[in-house]
């Protein structure tokens, strides 16, 4: 147990948890903290469970954890009877329950992550069978299963690719090799283009080839459209045939029946359909709803173990026994009163059950009849496709069978004749082949003898001579020449042939040697050409790689050259600064006061003294300004008042000039008097 806790603590202190626990702090965790810790580990395995358990109810937490542990195929320690205790301990956060779960999870985290990821897509949703009767739901469920199978195949391929051992370096090498092959193909295409350009009307030929390719693609698309239209036509014909068959059946039923029978048949169908609508289907629908309600209720409850199921079965048996006892008591209690109606009740129940059974049989018979009609329609269509006409019936079929028998006998006779002719043709063909082989063998023997005697081509020449002699004879017959002229011509031709043979014999020997030598040189040329092509391809690839390396080195050289120039400039600046520093030190150490004054330090010292003197003067001036600030401000105010007074007088003077003379102003002793 201590080893288990130590392993858990070590795993929790590592990535990605980093809890910084020790044995004491981990052992002192409370139940809620343990549950939150277990939830964090489950959240690391499946991110959907990374929640705070304080924000949800304990039942929801336990249900969620049990669901994930079931998906991960965790088996609690102990027997089946301990499952309820395990569930209770998981809800309360018991240490004997939580610690084994943590130990099991932390031992195989990566494997469980993969299992949780696959469970998101591979845990199949169970759809009730009554829902699958709907076509839409069935199609969606089928698509769902197909997508699940596709996901399985893709996941297997992905795992195979991961474990195939293909490294990034190998992929890079393959990519570089493919790029080299691409470059070689581009160059080869360019060479072929150059060769094609020399051909006359190459543009027109290329255009014709492109049009041919487009027409082939168009032909394929048209063939596909034709096949689709054929399928649509076939389905439309099937629908038409079904409609025609139904129409014939209706017409036949109308012809052979009376209005009373039709009304009776319609009433039976109406009664049957009303029974289905009012009694059978609502009862089945109600039972389906009840079963659906109970199933939903069972699904909403937490998962139950075998022990819980056994307890529930015991309770169900007890309740059934109590119900049977109550029914017996009730029957015993009300037996005297209901004795008259019990027989009728039993008969009514038997009749209702028979009615239900007959309705089910009728519905099954209708379904079987519809399926049989569909099969008959399919067989009719197949027969029509094979024969090209409708199916025959009665006397027409017998007449057709007799006709087939007569044709069969005639066919057998002709077949025997054809077999005899075929056998004779085979014998003649074999004889012809044997004669041809014998003729070829004789010709080969004759040619070998001529080669051996040194007169190859003699037979051919002899044939030519015979042909020429025949022509000559015909010409002689036509022209009426004499036999002497013909013999002389033959002698001349023989002498000419002999001379040509004698002159061509050494040439033919040399030609044979030259042919053999030409074949050897051609073979050697082909081998050298193959070697040249491979060497050229290798050199071309090496040249491209070297060009890339040279390009990189040139760029590096330019970069280094710019760095070199920058460093030289910096070096020059530093040398200038160093020279100035040396001159400054020399001037500062020099005993000559003139040289010392040239030093920058002395110059800055003088400037500092000048600025200090200027600062003293400015401070004194500031002090004077501060002292005279008050009187100066008063004087400014007085001048401003004086200015306003003068402005007022000016305005009064201007007003006085603008007004009419009301009186006379007299000035005496600096005073103004107005005399009216």
Describe what you observe in this structure.
The chain is mostly helical. Helices cover 85% and strands 1% of the residues. It is built from 19 helices and two strands. The chain has a two-stranded antiparallel ribbon with strand order 1-2. Strand 1 and strand 2 form a beta hairpin. Helix 1 crosses helix 6, helix 3 runs parallel beside helix 6 and helix 15 crosses helix 16. The radius of gyration is 60 Å and the shape is flat. The chain starts with a helix and ends with a strand. The model has no long low-confidence stretch (mean pLDDT 78).
Number of strands: 2
Q: Give the neighbour order of strands across the main sheet.
A: 1-2
Head-to-tail CA distance between termini: 132 Å
Count helical runs.
19
Rg estimate, integer Å: 60 Å
User: How big a fraction of the residues is strand?
Assistant: under 5%
What is the fold's blueprint, element by element?
Layout: H1 2-13, H2 23-27, H3 31-45, H4 58-71, H5 83-92, H6 95-107, H7 109-122, H8 129-132, H9 135-163, H10 168-197, H11 202-256, H12 259-300, H13 306-387, H14 395-453, H15 458-479, H16 483-589, H17 593-598, H18 600-627, H19 629-658, E1 664-668, E2 671-675
Helix pairs in contact: 1-6, 3-6, 15-16
Kindly summarize this structure in a few lines.
By secondary structure, this protein is an all-alpha fold. The chain is 85% helix and 1% strand.
